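call fold(seq) -> tokens
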Amino acid sequence: MNQDKTQSSAGPSRPSVSVIIPIYSGDAYLSEMLDKLCLAGLRLNAGKRIELVIVDDRSPLEAETAALVRAAGEWADVVYHRNQVNLGYIRSANKGMALASGSRFLLCNSDTRLAPGALARLEAALDADPAAGMAGPMTNGGYNTKLQQLAEPPAQLESFSDDELRRFDDFGRALAARELRPVPANWLISFCTLIRREIFESVGPLDEGFKYGYLEELDYGIRARAAGWKLAAVPDAFVFHGGLRTKWKLSPNGSCQSGGASHLRTFYRVARSYIYVARKHGLQALSTPQDIQGTPA
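ret:
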């Protein structure tokens, strides 16, 4: 498959949503997550035309990734780009947004699974308020955040079997049926975020100084709000984040995709991002709460 090749089975009109997925499949486990979690979940949500933008960051499993992309062309318009060199998450995400043609961008990690109805609820949050520029779901794997972390999430996945995945899908389907009101936020964790195209065009891309993807969402939230946009957490949209319970995890809730990363390397990358945020926005930015209500007067 050639770079930037589009497979289209729909008409020429602009899709409402472009789903951007930067990937690095270094082993079969990560490739299986892309297939069974991310792509399968998106297919459940593709009730209307979506565009799928896959940016392969020069990962070793090129043939396996290309095969999954070809299969996805059966239910989505697909744009596939493979980087000539490994660029890191942020530059790959920016490349995907630059290639996307949709009026909204759903930036997703490859270890996420949208429950049925999750995309519709995220879109409803933006439809409800023209000033709402970004919307993020609830999850089982929200790291140390509170606003988007479910208090009682489903038990961690034991396998990628149909029964196990159905358990998560049923949970999310029931949550979506509640039609809860969005909650104002200062920033949104970037494992899965719906972004208006206008933000990308006016605020600009993600800051590529955050090469490895830590705290870039805090920076982007600050920039978006400074430009007058509102952010919303969507309590009736559920997106699973993470891998299997039996895999080694970076955090207790199992929300890390790249389980092979060492603690020392991760600590260095996070520390580097903290310093970068402080230099860019000041030390006070590091204590910015996720929820608007927690903002100091």
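The beta strands are 5-7, 17-23, 50-56, 77-82, 104-108, 112-114, 132-138, 183-185, 192-196, 230-241.
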